[in-house]
Amino acid sequence: MKLRTLAMLIATTFAVAACAPQAPANQSATQDKTTAPTNDNKKAAETETAVADLPVIDAVMTHAPEAPPPVNRDHAARVKVKIEVQEKVMQLSDGVEYKFWTFGGQVPGQMIRVREGDIVDVEFANRTDSTVPHNIDFHAATGPGGGAEASFTAPGHVSNFSFKALQPGLYIYHCATAPVGMHIANGMYGLILVEPKEGLPKVDREYYVVQGDFYTKGKYGERGLQTFDMEKAIKEQPEYVVFNGKVGSIAGDNALKAKVGETVRLFVGNGGPNLVSSFHVIGEIFDNVHVEAGSLVNQNVQTTLVPAGGAAMIDFKIDVPGTYNLVDHSIFRTFNKGALGQIKAEGAENKNIYSGKITEGVYQVEGGAIQETPMSASETAKAAEGSPTAKNKEDRIRLGEIGYKNNCLACHGAEGKGVEGAFPPLANSDYLNADPKRGIHAVTRGLSGEITVNGKKYNSVMPALATLPDEYVANILTYVLNNFGNKGGEVTPADVSEYRKSK
Ligand SMILES: [Cu+2]
After folding, report:
1. Model-level pTM?
2. By CB distance 3.0 to 4.6 Å, which of 15, 128, 196, 350 could disulfide with 156?
3. How large is the average pLDDT for residues 39-58?
């Protein structure tokens, strides 16, 4: 095996060497493809060094969400990239495990950053404990399969091949071993950035985010080790859509950080295998978007498409502090399948740009005035009309289920599991079980500021549902207390009304 590898190495080296004298010709071919004349001039100006004379360096590679630092070189190099395939059980969500197939032990694989014109020398190893062969297709490479054939590697073997990073951009790499869809669905993708020769405009922070869809036998949130479901994959019906391989990987305590006044660049990829991402950051407008991660820059963009097997480069300035949610705006994926990330920005408020809530009151259709006072007793009674009165506790639970579905499910989820980093669980909630009045408080007055639920911190805002009648609130909370593994109990309309009167 060693001999074979050596022979292949030599063959690859020869192939590269043989190409070297033709390189200028190759390059003019590339020039024909580009349209911007300024680019052509720049390319022509830089003299081509023979491949053998290029300095050899190791690639700086980073695990998501970190991105490698700018290349900062004014010449080409041979950049050595080492990738080891590892099949590995990791968490897809809290309590949910999945056997991922990975480049380098994490999903996505490490981000690689090279310079336009570099030779990328890939060493591709497949561990002995792997169950199947793997390979790698670099969208940044020009050549059959993007390296897929050259890198096809059985368990316990290692392959080498090289490619020249001819064109700048941010490119997906992925496994392309049959069944290709399954290898990608198991997490085999990552990004390589080919910086233009002049580099990218400087920003204060850069992050690496890759979306992927996952197809588990069990439903979203079903605990235990989950296996791949080919049927769901073929139907393109994932249970999970996540950023960086796990629900909550960049939310809550893992949120990306920034400060007011800073510029942030996101290197966003989409491994797929199936879904196209409508990538959006709630509360931000993208200043610049390298559309499809190519050379075309669009400005003032709200949502950008990131195709499966594609990418986008996005930058924006943070003007005001707060939490910015990264979402796939095909929005059920965010609230029900896990596609939620966060940037937490600290710094000084700027009320001119964003005031925050100035007043809140009850909106009355008749008269149209905003009142500072809560609903009057007669208004509450009116709202309660048509919502039947529960005869007993069982009845209350039954009626509460409907109320829960209409008013709470959107954020806390059908099973009350919430969304890690954004919406706390009502299931088995130590916070709620410690004192059901907390539930009355949250629903009638809203809840904000830091709370800890089942050992996890949440610092978000639940809007008050102040107009729900007492009976209705009592039913919902009784339903919650008697479901989702909570400790039971009953909240009565009298409890709610009493709490409303307290200060
Ligand atoms: Cu593979």
Report:
1. 0.65
2. 128
3. 71
